[in-house]
Design goal:
It is built from eleven helices and ten strands. With 296 residues, it is of the alpha/beta class. The radius of gyration is 21 Å and the shape is globular.
């Protein structure tokens, strides 16, 4: 029944200020709780992971998809979640159009706190039994700390810090979005590298040359038309795709690339200090670039 579905959802629903539980009018009220399914979604600037499980907790499938950022491109992100649901349902032997009415979707998404995100999410998944939206950082915080007081510094396509206090309050730092925020992220590394390369290309750079420049020229092009053609549609994911060039070059001793990595680490240290971790309330590093910046 609808009441059981809502109660089950509340057992794992995050309680941050951006979270919202949106019961759907399209609920299969004849379906008992043990016949329901749950889809958990973790959507970020580079990729989206979705997992399907039965109400008993038994896993029924897990898939990866493209980026899902409700601030940068909400339509594409919501379509990605829908596509993942269809694939998960088919792989589990479910009918995605029929069994959606006995499935709850709970998502932690980049850009979930952007204006209009709740309404878009609710409209996109109104056919589900219920849907729940939180920020990707908050769901990562709960996973990293187990719901106990502590902090999370997420370093991936973007960068954000979250602090869960003993009172249950959550303090968020950074995470304002690219390009004004996300300093020290994968997108930031790629963005900085492109900007410095263009200064070098124009002949007024006051920094040492880098082996990254030739790699960027090969990817973005040599002519003004080619470069602008790459830059115009480029999103955080595209800039983040260039970060491995910087990381690889830094590892090989490239001075310029190493300076960019150190600048990124300086941003992370400032965030970490601001979250005031303690022995009993530690700070956890997470995200695709976390291993690069994890203390030795």
């Amino acid at each position: 029944p609808k009441e059981e579905a809502a109660a089950a959802l509340r057992t794992f629903a995050p309680l941050d200020a951006t979270a919202v539980t949106i019961p759907s009018v399209c609920v299969d009220v004849a379906a008992p709780l043990d016949r329901m399914y749950f889809v958990g979604v973790d959507g970020g600037g580079t990729k989206t992971r979705a997992a399907l499980s039965a109400a008993t907790g038994e896993p029924a499938g897990e898939l990866l998809g493209g980026p899902c950022n409700l601030f940068q491109d909400p339509d594409a992100g919501l379509a990605e979640i829908r596509a993942l649901w269809i694939r998960l349902a088919a792989a589990a032997g479910l009918d995605p159009e029929v069994d959606v009415a006995r499935t709850v979707v709970s998502a932690g998404l980049a850009g979930a706190n952007a204006p209009g995100s709740r309404e878009r999410f609710a409209a996109a998944f109104a056919d589900f039994a219920a849907c729940h939206l939180s920020t990707d950082g908050y769901t990562s915080l709960l996973g990293a700390t187990g719901g106990q007081p502590g902090g999370l510094l997420a370093i991936g396509t973007g960068v954000a810090g979250y602090r869960l206090h003993a009172s249950g309050a959550v303090h968020k730092l950074s995470g304002w979005g690219f390009p004004v925020g996300d300093r020290g992220s994968g997108a930031w590394l790629g963005w900085r590298a492109v900007g410095d390369w263009l200064e070098f290309k124009d002949g007024y750079a006051d920094q040492p040359p880098s082996c990254v420049w030739s790699r960027l020229e090969g990817l973005l092009g040599r002519t003004t038309a080619d470069i602008l053609g790459w830059l115009k549609p480029a999103r955080p994911a595209e800039f983040a795709s260039l970060a491995p060039l910087v990381i690889e070059a830094a590892g090989a001793g490239d001075v310029k690339a190493g300076a960019l990595i150190e600048e990124a680490a300086a941003h992370h240290r400032r965030l970490a200090r601001a979250m005031a971790p303690t022995t009993h309330e530690p700070l956890v590093l997470a995200g695709g670039l976390a291993p690069l910046f994890r203390p030795a």
